[in-house]
Amino acid sequence: MPKWAMVIDLDRCTGCGACNVACKMENNVPIVDPDEAQNGRAMFWMDMVATYEGEFPHTEAKHVPKPCFHCDDPPCTKVCPVGATYRNPEGLVGQIYHRCIGCRYCMAACPFTAKVYNWYDPKWIDGAQVANPDVSQRMVGVVEKCSFCAHRLQKVKETADVEGREIQENEYVPACMENCPADAIVFGDIDNRNSKVSRLSRSYRVFRYMDDLGVKPKVYYLARRTSS
Amino acid sequence: MEIKRRDFLKLFGSLSGAVVLGEYALDEVMELPEGIIELAKNGPGVETWQNTICGLCPAGCGMRIRLIDGIPVYVKGNPIYPINKGGLCPLGLNALHSLYHPDRLKRPMRKNQSAGTSGWEDVSWDEALKTVSDKLVELRNTGKPHHVAFLGHEENGLMKRLIERFMQAYGSPNYYQCSSAQNNVVPYALLHGHTTMPTYDILNARLIVSFGSNFLEEGYSPIYYTKLYSHHEEQRTRYVQIESRLSLTAANADQWVPILPGTYGALALGLAYVLIREELYDKEFVQQRMVGFEDRVDRSGTRHVGFKNMVLGNYYPEKVEELTGVPSSVILQLGREIGNTRPSLVIGDHGAIDNTNGTYSAMAVHSLNALLGNFEKEGGIFFVDEPPFGGFKSVPLDATARKGRSQDPIGLSKGNAFPLTRFSIESFTKNVLSGTPYPIDVLFVLGGNPLFSALNQKEFSQALQKIPLVVSFDNMLNETSEHAHVILPHDHFMESWGEVSNVTSVGFTHVGMQHPVISRVYDTRHTGDVLIDLAKRIGGQVSRAFPLKNYEEELKRALNGVYNSGTGAIVTEGVGTHWIQFLRQRGWQIGQYASFDEFWDRLIKQGGWWNPIRKTKRWGQVFRTRSQKFELSSQALREGLDKLVVKTGKTNSAQDREFVLSQLNISARGDTVFLPHHEPVPYEVDMPLHLITFRVLSVRDGQGAALPMMQEMFGHSVRRYWQSWAEINPKTAELQHVRDGDWILVQSDAGNLKVKAKVSEGIMPNVIAIPFGLGHTSLGRYAKGHGVNPNSIMKNLYDMLSGKPATQATKVRISVAT
Amino acid sequence: MTQRSGAMVDRDEILFRPIYFTGKGFHITFGILALVLLWSLYMYVTQLSSGLGLTGMNQPVSWGFYIVNFVFFIGISHAGTLISAILRLSKAEWRRPITRMAEVITAIVLAIGGLHPIIDLGRPDRMLNLFTAGRLQSPLLWDVTSITAYFTASTVYLYLPMIPDIARIRDRGGKMKWLYTFMAWGWRGTKRQKHVLNRAISILMVMVIPIAISVHTVISYIFSMTLQPGWHSTIFGPYFVVGAIFSGIAALLIVMIAFRRVYHFENYLKEIHFQYLGTLLLIMSLIWFYFTFSEYLTGVFGAEPHEMHIIMYKLTGPYAVFFWGMILCNFVLPVIIMSFKKLRTITGILIASMGVVIGMWLERLIIVVPSLANPRMELPAGMYMPTMLEWSLFAGGIAVFVMGFMIFSKFFPLISIWEIEEGRTHGRKEVEERIESYLPAAERPG
Ligand SMILES: Nc1nc2c(c(=O)[nH]1)N[C@H]1C(S)=C(S)[C@@H](COP(=O)(O)OP(=O)(O)OC[C@@H]3O[C@H](n4cnc5c(=O)[nH]c(N)nc54)[C@H](O)[C@@H]3O)O[C@H]1N2
Ligand SMILES: Nc1nc2c(c(=O)[nH]1)N[C@H]1C(S)=C(S)[C@@H](COP(=O)(O)OP(=O)(O)OC[C@H]3O[C@@H](n4cnc5c(=O)[nH]c(N)nc54)[C@H](O)[C@@H]3O)O[C@H]1N2
Ligand code: SF4
Ligand code: SF4
Ligand code: SF4
Ligand code: SF4
Ligand code: SF4
Ligand SMILES: [Mo]
Fold first, then answer.
1. Ligand 3 pocket check for A141: Cβ under 6 Å
2. What is the CATH number of the domain that holds B290?
3. Which of B1, B11, B719 sits opposite C386 (nearest CB)?
4. Model pLDDT for residues B200-214, shown as the tens digit of each residue
5. What is the dihedral of CA C19, C25, C26, C31, to 10 degrees?
6. Which numbered atom of ligand 2 lies nearest the CA of B450?
7. Are C75 and C82 in contact (CB under 8 A)?
8. Which of C61, C71, C123 should be substituted to probe chain A, the one whose Cβ sees the most A Cβ atoms within 10 Å?
C-alpha cells in the first residue's frame, strides 16, 4: 500500500502563489465576499505563510506554501464526533462533506490551521458544471481542506485498473504540483524508497513543521540554501 | 494582523454586528449564456484538451485547456511549451474567469448622445463599423488621414504588423504603443544600437546582480524567469537584488541591498569604480569593443573625458554611499564579487529605470555588463533572432496616404522634451489638447488602460474628451474605454486566432499559437478581422493592402514562412538541455512534415514553434552602432541632442546646448552628458518619504483586478484582501506615529489617498511602497471601488530622455488618518 | 387568583405564596424576557437560513461565544446538584432551604448549556449523524453522553425531593390539580414511602457527584485532548470542575438573594446561609486561584514558545483586559469582600457573586479564544468580534434562565418545605445525637 506524501523545496519555491490559485481552481474552492475575506474567512486549501525575519537591512523574507499536512497521526480526525474527517489506509486525510455536522472541532484541533469552513453557502458559476467537474462542490456549514487532490488518485486508479496495471510513479500528480512554475513541489509514495519524495524526504535539508508534536506530517519541507 | 486593544473594547462598547443578511456580494461569481448552461447540464460529457497561449499578459505562457462538450472547464500550463514548461502564474490559472466574466461586453456599443454621457446603446457590427468607416472615409476624402491615431499596447508580432500596415495604407503616421517597452529600450539603443530588449543567459551565469528588476514578479515573462531561477540543479546561482523594497525577487535572492530610489545609476557607477580600480574588468573587451572608456583628444586638440576617469573622479565608494544609502563596504564587496565571479550578469529594470533619470541609470547599469565583457557568450547577453514569418509584398501608398504619412507624428514632443522617443503619452496629450500641429479626429485604443496607468490622468482624460471619435476594442469597460464613442469588443483569447511570438527577454525565437478553443460566447470579433473589414470598407489602395480574407489567413501566410524556413521545430515533449546540445551539433530542422497543412495542424495541436539555436553573429550585428562597438560615450545621444539644438534655432550653439540641457533638466555638462552618469532626481526637500510602487503577479498592471479570485490573491500573503496597503519601515512608522493596520493619509503635491499601513522590515526607512493595480473606477463589478491607485498622486514627471513615466520620482508625507 | 378551599394555613405559608399570587412586576419582567427570547429565536432562524457566517467566528478563531457560553452555562449548572448533593451527603443542616434552588439552577442551565453546541453546529440538520455515525473516540461524544447522563440524573434528583411538596400542593387543591396529582405519584407520606424516597435520594446524591464531576472534566477534555497551546494541559479537568463549582455557588447566591427579596424569604434564607455559602465561595476562590496560578506558572516556567506566546497574549496582549478583569473578579474582589467582616454583608456577597459569575465567563473566553487566535504556524493572529447575533443568543440564554426560574416558582415551592419541616422535627435531635457521637464517651468510673 503506498503512502502519499509531499515535499516542498523552499529553495526553489519563489512564493509566486500559483499553487494557491491552482488549488482553488482545481478544487472549486469558493471565493468569498471582500469583507468576509478581510474578516478571516478567505478560503485557501493551499495557504501561503509569508513572514519576515530579522531587522532591516538584514531582513529575510520567507514564503511557505502550506497545504494540509495529511498527518500520519492526525489530531483532527481523532476529535471528529461523526467520522467526517478520517485518515485512509494510503495516508490521505479526507473529509466527508455530507456527513460533517459543522462543529469545527477538527479545525480547532489542527495544529497547522489547515482547515477552512463554509461560513455561507458558497456561490459559484451558475451552471456549476463549468467549474472543475471532477470535484464536488461543498455546501454551507461544512469543513473542507486540501485533499491531496484525492479525486486525481481516483481517476488514476481507475485508468490503471482498466489497463490492468499498477499506478506508475508520477502518475498521481496534485494540481498544485502540476502547476508550480518552480517545480518546487514533489509528490509520491514515501514508502517506496526509490521514489523522489522518499529520496528528498531524507535530504539533509528536510524539516517538518512542529515535528515534536508527534503528529507526523506528511508534507516535508526542504530548507533554503544560501550560496555565499 | 495585529489586534488592537480598542477593537476589543468595541466588544463591549458597541453591539456592532454584521447582521446584514443577503449582503453576500459574490452571488454568482461568473455568468454564463443560456446555451452554455444547457450544454453543460445535458451534454454527453466528452472530454478534450486543447493548447493555446495565455492572453492575459504579454508573457506568452503556453496553456492547456480542458473542455467538456466543447466548454472550457479547466486550464493549466502546457508542459511542452518552452517558456513556461507547464507552469502558469495565478492570473493565467484564473483565465476562465476572464472568459466567463459577467461584465464582458457582449456586442458592439455606441455612446448614445441623448442618454447622457454614460449612456450606451447596443448596435450591430455593421452599424458600428459603418460609423467608424464613414468617418475614416470622410477624413481621407478631405485629405486628413493623419488626423487618425492608433494607441496600441503590448501587441507584437503579426498584430503589430497588421496595424502598421493599416495605418500606412490609410495614411497616418500615428500608430503608437503605449507601453513601457517603447521607452525601456532607449538606453540599449543608445549604448549599442538595438531596438529590442536584450536577453540574459540567467541559466549559465553564476552571479546575477539585479538593479531593481523584480523579474520574478514584474518581469516581461515572470514564469519564464521563475523557471530559470529555480533550475539550479548542479550549482546554485547567486542572486543579489538591489532594490528599495524587499520584492519577491529580493526575497528569493541571496542578498538584498536596499537602496534609495533614484540612485541606482550612482550605485552602478560605484561598482564600476571598484572594477576599474581593482582592474577586475574585461580588458580585452574594453579595448577592442568599446568606445569612450579612456579619455580622448579630438582633432581640435580638446581633451574629452572618458568613462574611466569620470567614474574614478566622481563615484568613489564614500560618495556613492552618501548618494545611495548603500554602505561602502557593501559597494566594495559587490564590486569585487562581480569582478571575480564569471560569468556574472547585471540586470537593470523597473525600480532602476522608473525615474526621471531612468535612461542614464539603465545606461550605467548596462555599462557594468560591458565592463564584464558580457556579450555573445555563455552567461551573458544576447539578442534573439526574429521568427522567419512570411510577409506581403508591400502595396504602394496612394497620394493621400503619402501626404498623410509625411506629417509630423502627433506623439512627438513639440518642445524640448524626450528627444529619443517617437511617442510619449505626455507629449501626445499636450498636442491633442492644443490641437497642434493638427487635431486628432479619430483615436483607436487597443488593449491597455492608459487612463488608469498614466500619470497625467486628468489631462489625458480631457484629451480623450476632445477627440470626436474614440474607438475602443476593449471587451470590458475600463477607465479608458468609458471615454470611447464606439466599442468594437475584441474576442477573448480563447475564442480567437492569434500568435504570441518572441516575448521580450525570452532567450529563444518562438511563435506561440492561439486558436478558437471555444466558439464565441458573445457577439465579439477579432480586432485583426475588424481592421481588415474597415480597410475593405474604405476601399482603394487601403483595401488592396489587405488581400486576405481574415486574420486567420494572415496567420497562415506568416506561418508559411516559418514552415518554409526549415528551421526550428514544433514544440514537443522531452526537450531538455542535452537534447538541445545534441541538436546544436547535428543541425536543427523540421523536415518531418509532408505539407504545410500537416505542419499547421500539428502546430495548433502542440501549441507553438520554437528555435533555441541562435545564428552566430558578427560583432557588427551585435553592436548596431555606427562604430560597431559598445558606445559608452553615446554617439546616438550626441546626435539626438544636436538635433534638438538645431531645432531651437539659436545662433550660438554653446548657448543653445545649454538651453536644451536645462530644458531637459539635465544637470551634467560637457562630455559627461553623453556618458552614463547619475542625474539627481528633482525631489521636493520638504517631503519625507519616497513613494514607490510595485506590481504583484495576480493583478499585474491592473487587469487582474477585474477577476474576483485575483482580488482575493492580491494581498493574500499580507492578509489584505481586495485592498491596497502601504508598506513602511518600523523606524518610519515610529517617526510618523503610525502603527501597523492604521489608516494613513498619503499626501503628495499632486494629491492624496487613504490606505492601510503595513509596517514591514522589508522596506527601507523613508520609503513607502503601495502596490499598483487596484483603485479602479471602472473595469467591472469586481475591480470597481477596491483599493487605491498610487499613480493618481504621482507628480507628472517623465524620464528626461525617453519620456517614460517616472513612477518613483514623487515624495510624500503621511499622517494617521482619522 | 385562586382561592384555596379550606382554612388550612400552613406554618410555611409564605413558601406557597408565589404559586398562588402573581404580581404586576412578574408580568412585566416576564414580558420583557419573552421579547428577548423571541428576538433571539428570530436571530437563530436567520443563522439557520444563512449560515454561521453571521457570527464573528472565522479562521482561525473557529469557536466563539457559543462554545464560551456552553462551557460557562454548564459550569454554572454545577451549582446545583453537586453542591446540594455534597451538602446533603455531609449532612449539613443549613442546606435545607438551599438545595431546591440549587437543583433548579442545574436543570435549567444544563438545558441551556446543552443547547449551545447545537446552536454552534453548522449543520444542525445532521445531528442524527451523532447517533448513526457517532465516534466514541471523540471527546465531543463523551460530552454528549455525560451531559445527557447529568441532565437525566439531575432532573430526577430535582424531582424526587419535590414529591412530598407536590403532594401538599395537590392536597391543598386549587389550580391544575391534575398536574400535581400526576406528579405526586400517589405520595401519601407513609413510612415506607418515606423510606423509599430517602433511599432513592441517597443513592442519587452519591451517583450524581461523580457524574457532575465527569461532566466538566469531559468538557475540559474537549480542549485538553487537542495539542493546542493553552489547552493541552492535564490540570484542566479539576481546574474546570473547581471553576464550575465556583461559578455555581456564585450563581446560587445571586438566585437566593434575588428570590429572598422578591418573595420575602428572609425568614428562611438567613444571614447565616449567606455567610456559610460565602465562606464556601471564598474557599473556592482560593482554590481557583491556586489552579490558575499553577496553570500559568508551569506554562511560564516551561516557556515552550507557543505556550508562552499564548500566555503573553493573555497577560499583556489584546486579551490582557479580560485576563486581569478575570483575576480581579474571581480573586481580588471575592477575597477582599469575604475577608472583611464589614464588607461581608448580603450586598457585599451579591457583588462578590456577580463578580465571580462575570469572572468565570471571562475565564471561559480567555480559554477558548486566545488559543485559537494564535495559530502555531507563523500566521497572523486572528481576531474575534462577536456579532449582534451572538450577543442576542447570549441574552436569550440568560432570559431563558430567568424565565425558567420564574415559571418554576409559579408551580412549585422554591424552598423544600418538607425538608424544612423535617429539620424542625428530626434535625435537631439528629444533630444533637450526632454531636454526641463525635464527643469522647463519658468516662466510666471504676
Ligand atoms: N507579473 C507580471 N508580469 C508582467 C507584468 C506585470 O505587471 N506583472 N507586466 C507585463 C508588462 S505589461 C510589461 S510592460 C512587462 C515589463 O514591464 P517593465 O518594462 O519592466 O515595466 P515598467 O518599466 O515598470 O513600466 C513603465 C511604463 O510605460 C508605460 N507608458 C506610459 N506612458 C507611456 C508613454 O508615454 N510612452 C510609452 N511608450 N509608454 C508609456 C506605462 O504606463 C508605464 O508606466 O512585463 C510584463 N509581465
Ligand atoms: N505605478 C506603476 N504604474 C504602472 C506600472 C508600474 O509598474 N507601476 N506599470 C505600467 C505598465 S508596464 C503598463 S503596461 C501599464 C498597463 O496598464 P493597463 O494599460 O491598464 O494594462 P492592462 O491592465 O494590461 O490592460 C488591460 C485592458 O485591456 C483589455 N484587453 C485585454 N485583452 C484585450 C484584447 O485582446 N483586445 C482588446 N481590445 N482589449 C484587451 C482588458 O479588457 C483591459 O481593459 O501600467 C503601467 N503603470
Ligand atoms: S507555485 Fe511553486 S513556486 Fe509558486 S508559491 Fe507555490 S510552491 Fe512556491
Ligand atoms: S494538517 Fe491539520 S487538517 Fe491536516 S491532517 Fe494534520 S491535523 Fe488534520
Ligand atoms: S466539523 Fe465536520 S469534520 Fe470537523 S470535526 Fe466536526 S463533524 Fe468532523
Ligand atoms: S494537493 Fe491538491 S488539494 Fe492539496 S493543496 Fe495541492 S492542489 Fe490543493
Ligand atoms: S505570466 Fe501569467 S498572465 Fe502572463 S502569460 Fe503567463 S500565465 Fe498568462
Ligand atoms: Mo507593461
1. no
2. 3.40.228.10
3. B11
4. 998 889 999 999 999
5. 160
6. 19
7. no
8. C123
User: What residue ranges define each of the domains in chain C, with the CATH number in brackets?
Assistant: 17-125+134-420 (1.20.1630.10)
Helix (H) or strand (E) holding A189: strand A185-189
> Residue C441: CB partners within 8 Å, gap ≥ 6?
none
Confidence of residue B15 (pLDDT cuts 50, 70, 90): very low
- Surface-to-core class of residue A155, CB atoms within 10 Å of its CB (0-12 exposed, 13-18 middle, 19+ buried): middle
Please give the single-letter amino acid code of residue A218: K
Eight-state DSSP code of residue A89:
T
CATH of the domain at A142: 3.30.70.20
- Between chains, do A111 and C222 touch, taking CB under 8 Å as contact? no
Residue nearest atom 5 in ligand 5 by C-alpha distance: A80
Q: Is the pLDDT of residue B783 over 50?
A: yes
Q: Read out DSSP for B66-131? A: EEETTEEEEEEE-TT-TTTTT---HHHHTHHHHHT-TTB--S-EEE-GGG-TT-EEE--HHHHHHH
Residue B713 in contact with partner chain A when CB distance is under 8 A: yes
The distance of B1 to chain C (nearest Cα, Å) reads: 5
> Which of B437-441, B678-682, C422-426 is least confident?
C422-426
* DSSP string computed for B262-324: T-HHHHHHHHHHHHHHTT-S-HHHHHHHEESSS-EE-TT--EE--HHHHHHHH--HHHHHHHH
Please tell me if residue B685 touches chain C, with a CB cutoff of 8 Å. no
Across the interface, which of B18, B86, B712 has its CB nearest the CB of A31?
B712
- Cα–Cα distance measured from residue B562 to residue B387, given in angstroms and rounded to the nearest whole number: 7
Cα separation, C408 vs C107, in Å, equals 11
- What average pLDDT is seen over chain B? 89
And the C-alpha cell for B523?
Answer: 457577439
Taking the C-alpha atoms of residue B260 and residue B326, their distance in angstroms, rounded to an integer, is 8
Residue B603, domain member (yes or no): yes
Q: Domain for residue B511, yes or no?
A: no
For the cut 60, the answer to whether the pLDDT of residue B599 exceeds it is yes
Residue among B18, B72, B216 minimizing CB distance to A16? B216
Going by the DSSP 8-state scheme, the letter that residue B490 receives in this structure is B
Site residues for ligand 6, CB cut-off 6 Å: A 22-23, 26-27, 45-46, 67, 146-149, 174-176
Give the domain range for residue B413: 109-184+395-493+523-550
Q: Is the CB of A19 under 6 A from ligand 3?
A: yes
Residue C305 has pLDDT above 50, yes or no: yes
pLDDT confidence tier of residue B585, bands split at 50, 70 and 90: low
* Residue with CA at minimum distance from ligand 3 atom 4: A16
pLDDT > 60? residue A127: no
What's the pLDDT tens digit per position in A13-46? 999 999 999 999 999 999 988 988 999 999 999 9
Give mean pLDDT, residues B352-378: 94
Task: Say how far residue B260 (Cα) sits from the centre of its chain.
Answer: 23
How many structural domains are present in chain B? 4
Q: Per residue in C53-69, is it b (16+ CB within 10 Å) or e — as a string? A: bbbbbbbbbbbbbbbbb
Confidence of residue B337 (pLDDT cuts 50, 70, 90): very high
**pLDDT at B25 > cutoff 60:** no
Residue B54 has pLDDT above 50, yes or no: yes
Tell me: the pLDDT tens digits for A80-126? Answer: 999 999 999 999 999 999 999 999 999 999 999 999 999 998 876 55
Which residues have a Cβ under 8 Å from the Cβ of C236 and sit 6 or more positions away? C220, C221, C223, C224
The pTM of the full predicted model, rounded to 2 decimals, is: 0.92
Which candidate in C125, C126, C141 is best for mutational testing of the A interface (most A CBs within 10 A)? C126
Tell whether C222 lies on the interface with A, counting CB pairs under 8 A: yes
DSSP H/E element including B434: helix B425-434
Domain count, chain A: 1
